[in-house]
Queue: 4 jobs
Job 1
Amino acid sequence: MSARRRSRVGSAFSVLLKFVVLLAVAPLPATLFLRFVQPPTTAMMLTRTWQRWRAEQTPVYPRRDVVSREEVAPILRRAVLAAEDDRFYLHNGFDFTEIDKAIARSKSGGPMRGASTISQQVVKNIFLWEGRSWIRKGLEAYITLWLEVVVPKERILDLYVNLAEWGDGVFGIEAAAQHHFGKPAAALNADESARLASVLPAPTRRSPKGSAAASRAAGIRQRMVYPSPRPEPLP
């Protein structure tokens, strides 16, 4: 190989390596931003805006009110964990216990349920599109790794309750509490919290005041009696 050709190959390899490194660290600034600031909008909210515009619904842009941790009833945070990710404090973004259960249910002929953690849902809602493609799941997994490294657990939960969809065009727990129960998120009681958490898998198809929500909320209330598991403190 001539010196000129070796030089070209070396230059191409150098450009490719820089591109790979750039892609590898690309989630860092985005996740670091989330450590300190609630995103002004999310991919999910923009998707709903497009859908509402096409359906001629008003308001076109979904309702959302961002509140601080102190403005959310602690019992609501417990209800969300009981409903969506009770091992939130024990895993690093991926709950392999739930993944194994989901695989076992599928193999036995049962319905294939999702095993996404709250961290994964935050990444999906903020950055990604709806769907089940391997590309989307791969991006979700990779960005989740960065989120768990950069953002503390309590902050991830703050992000989730403020950006989750709680009804048709209703995003964030403050808007949800006002919309469904006519009160601020800080004033939610245990039953209202469990009912709101019960609609999270299908917020546009369920009402927290419906019979399906009541049935699921009963199970959530039972789990809420116990504190969410946390790692044992280091000696």
Note: The first helix runs from residue 3 to 25.
Job 2
Amino acid sequence: MIDYHIHTSLSADCDVDMMEMAAAADKKGLKEICFTDHYDIDFPSEDDYTVDFELYAKQLSEVKAAYPQINIRKGVEAGLEPHSFHRFEKLLENEELDYVVGSVHVVCGLDPYFDTFWKSTGRQKAFDEYARLSLECVKAADFYDVFGHLGYISKYCPMDNNLFKYSDYTGVVDEILTTLVERGQGLEVNTSGLLKTGNLMPDLPIIQRFKQLGGEIVTIGSDAHASELVGYAADYTLNALKTLGFKYVCAYDKRVPRFIPIP
């Protein structure tokens, strides 16, 4: 039905071009997708994790012409770090986007994707710092539309008890979710967690708590970096949201949410 978190070769960590990702979406019968390539300012890597927006516009125009049957939206995944907020705000003033998902990728100076992170940090410190930083970013910045993959720290944790649980961070998570609700921002339900932990990201109790606190804006994203993962577990996720009481999943047009009924 919908996938609002797809990467392409415009992201430093993806080798699949936009046209191939769109072809995969069409093959799977998706009606709406949003490309959300990485824009991480000062990302701790030799690779450039920013987006060439001129190339983005050119490729997007070609893809839209090739697949007019799909509603294709222009988005970006903003890597949230407190020191770069002002630069993001300036960037977004000059770029017309449909959707911005804000995500915490860097914890203790490094992305948890890397093995060296876990060797130097350890589980408890990593999870505690991720929770603290996520709250700081949510409280301090409002230039994004939804908060992305809450619980990202779980995705690459090589240790036992690798799930970011609501019961372990109740106060912090409640404050994060309450802030999003009060500001009219949403929560992304990222299906890639199913591949790593067997759970959606965030976990169902966190999604349920968002609903209890008045949250209505939820998006679904596969976080696909490979064409075979486009639309991954979308039907499963829609059913899970429906079970929790959500009636709609959101899409975005020029940063304005559009509510699509869950069948």
Note: Residues 123-140 form the longest helix (18 residues).
Job 3
Amino acid sequence: MGGAILSGFARSSSSSAHNLLAFDKSSSQCEEKQQQIEGLTLCKSGSELMKASDIAVLGVKPQIMKGVLEEIAPACHKDMVVVSMAAGISLAFLEKHLGMDAKIVRIMPNTPAMVGEAMVAVCRNSNVDDEDFALVMDIFNSVGKAEEVDESLIDCVIGVSGSSPAYTYMYIQALAEAAEANGMEPDKARIFAAQAVLGAAKMALESRESVEQLRINVCSPNGTTIEAVDRLIENGFMEDVKEGFQAAVNRSMEMTKEKN
């Protein structure tokens, strides 16, 4: 996820106003990113990165976050903003290890940051003023859309956008496989299925009509679409999606209890 955000931000027009630094314990990953991103400076350690940064994004897994925080805490300076994207790691946990006066932002992004279409939930502690927060929001708006939320909604965010690209890929895969079964070439099936999802999503974002009404608009009486929609509803499609969403939310809540 960290690599996706770094790559996405590097391709945005906003990146020209920033010096980009990176560190990863995997030297091969660092070198690969440096080849992909012009002007990327590699640091020799996490501590070196923190000392040189105004805004530092921690793209590490929740299970190793405690060790990383203990390593970098002495190198953090009072003016910097530390951004964490680790699921289940609360602002309170981060403050405990970085200091109660640390400026901390918690985000929940998703992998479409790689193509500039991320959905990023952002929440901050009381030490982050509006000026610093605007800079953080600018970074994440440059890789898609960013919205400030209360930390209490982070688990919900994981279900609705953090994990949901995976459910959406399943839907695209099912459509493409069905098209192939009806004689379409695999490459074309993928394009038709994915573009239909992209177009529908764009309409959902830009239309003033409800999502339900957009669906109704496509369904002519006794037509092909209503036949498909009725079958999906009959088979529990909507409820299955909601159950999958809730499973992700529940697991996020469990992880928070385990890590904090």
Note: Residues 164-257 form a domain with the ProC C-terminal domain-like fold fold (CATH 1.10.3730.10).
Job 4
Amino acid sequence: MSTAMTRDSSDLIDGGGRPSLVDADARTDDELLVALEAVLMVVDEPVPAAQLASVLAVPTAHIETLLRELVADYSGERGGRPRGFELRDLGGGWRFYSAPAASDEVAAFVLEGQTARLTHAALETLAVIAYRQPISRGRISAVRGVNVDGVVRTLMSRGLVEEAGHDEEGGALLYRTTGYFLERFGLRALEELPPLAPYLPDMESLSGLEERT
């Protein structure tokens, strides 16, 4: 019988009193790398390093080191061939993505027979929300000069925009971008948006326009 099978059950309880399914001290880095790959293979959204560390019962700093090793392995930096996928830190967490070199082929496969691209109106509305969030539909309409109800619903259905509470003054429903928005546009945080905000009207100057739209 293996050593792991003969351990006392108390060794499988972590500091918080929760059962631990793995013995972190007994695993090598290679085994941890395999576990990381397996977990990342099944995630639907970017996963923070701290969450991966919690799952694997390993310090976050060590998990971040291992993630960087995987990035280097997949990119071919260590002599291996480049892969058709990459591991990236985007949208507040880690996730596998297809390699940019194969973007045309991936797009052809995913978009074949679909109309997945956002319209120009949707992109304009999304830009207003991204740079002025949280913002109401009335103020978005004031910036764009048209009714945006349908476009906002489209952006919400795509998972790019979500509700963000109500305006304290008028009670209007507010909207903001989502973590999925960051992921799709290759951003770590909103601070990485290009400096376009100065070209949008100040919210204080929209009060009269909002009443007329």
Note: The domain at 24-107 is CATH 1.10.10.10 (Arc Repressor Mutant, subunit A).
